[in-house]
Amino acid sequence: MRAFIMTADKALKKLKDGNKKYLDSETGKGNISRALRLYTKEHGQHPYAIIVTCSDSRVIPESIFSAGIGDLFVIRVAGNVIDDHQLGSIEYAAGHLGSPLIVVMGHTFCGAVNAAIHHDPEGYIKYITDEIKQAIGDEQDDFRACCLNVKRSIDIIEHSLDIHKMEEKGMAVVGAVYHIEDGRVEFL
């Protein structure tokens, strides 16, 4: 396993500081320069955090955390649910790229959470809403349901054998909720 590129606490501080910049921004703050693109082509990526979040087009982790190319390893899936594919991606970013922090970030006004509470969808969407229903039980409040869904995803990640071993070496897994209405990230 590759050594972590920084402590999980330092990575969390970078995310919080980046979100503060984002709250006052009108344009992006992360480095997306040609020089950085060439550098990462030659030297690879070294993301300081893994962000597991929803596919919602209003949730843009690189912007939310004022991050640029190579800063974040972002895994997006509707409802920020976790299965073997996401676990494999997390293990890759942590084990091979040295990312010390995993953030599972839900968001307010999530369509997948709303569908799990108020509807019984058909087709492939049902796989997502069934996962969310397991997380939220009978909860009817959207925000509390979002938090419960984040917590379930964290529990799944933490019970992954390889992730558990990495946590013993300093990796951290934290939950967060992005507030679409004002851009704030609330770490749980």
From TrEMBL:
Any one Gene Ontology BP term: carbon utilization
TM region(s), chain numbering: none
Cofactor: Zn(2+)
UniProt binding sites for Zn(2+): 54, 56, 107, 110
MF terms in GO: carbonate dehydratase activity; zinc ion binding
UniProt KW Transferase keyword: no
Enzyme class at the top of the EC tree: lyase
Pfam families found in the cross-reference section: Pro_CA (PF00484)
UniProt-listed Enzyme Commission number(s): 4.2.1.1
InterPro entries: Carbonic_anhydrase, Carbonic_anhydrase_CS, Carbonic_anhydrase_sf
Reactions accelerated catalytically: hydrogencarbonate + H(+) = CO2 + H2O
Keyword annotations: Lyase, Metal-binding, Zinc
Lyase among keywords: yes
Cofactor note (record): Binds 1 zinc ion per subunit.
Family: Belongs to the beta-class carbonic anhydrase family.
Protein name: carbonic anhydrase
Source species: Anaerosacchariphilus hominis
Upper lineage: Bacteria, Bacillati, Bacillota, Clostridia, Lachnospirales
